[in-house]
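Sample pair:
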Amino acid sequence: MHDDSYARIQASPRFQELVAKRERFAWLLSSIILGLYVAFILLIAFQPQLLGTRISADSSITWGIPMGVGLIVVSFILTGVYVRRANGEFDNLNQAILDEVQP
């Protein structure tokens, strides 16, 4: 009985749509964060003096600290974006698929 349900789900056009949308979105967000991390590492490798420059003359904080923290914050934001879409659009598609295949 379950094998039949699984086969119907996998054959469903909505399931194919869900898989494709989720995969494209995950790759997009992964590419964004990977690009930012690579840019940060390249900045460390080729412009370390920029990251070592103090924010102001009397500050002990260099530009590297807010850039690193910003990178982490962007990671959290992108995770939130994914969770929001997963809990909305992806869950709705998932429920439609289940409603479609249940007797």
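The longest helix spans residues 64-101.
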